[in-house]
Amino acid sequence: MAQKTNSFERFWKELKRRKVIRVIPVYAVAAFVILQVVSMIVDPLHLPGWTMPLLIVFLIAGFILAVILAWAYEITSSGIEKTKPVERISEQKEVKQAQEKPDLKEKSIIVLPFENISPDPDQEYFSDGLTEEIITDLSHIHDLLVISRSSAMTFKGTKKKIKEIAGDVNVRYVLEGSVRKAGNDLRITAQLIDALNDSHLWAEKYSGTLDDVFNIQEKVSQSIGEALKIKLLPEEKQKILVRPIDSFQVYDIHIKAQNALLTATDDGLRRALHYINKGLEITGDNEILYADMGHVYMYYIETGIDKGESNFKKAEQCAEKIFSLNPNSANGYFLRGYINRWKGHIKESARDYKHALSIDPNHYNSKVFLSVIYLLCGKADSARPMVQELIKTDPLNPMSYLITGLVELFDGQFDKGVAYLRKAYDIEPSPLWRFHLARGLAYDNKLDEACLMYNRISIEAPGTHWAQMALFFLHSLQGEKSKALEIVTEDFLNTVKGDDVFTVWMAESYALMDFKKESIEWIEKAVANQNISYPSYESNPFFTNLRSEEQFKKLMERVKYEWESFEV
Question: Is-contact 396 165, C-beta < 8 A?
Answer without folding.
Answer: no
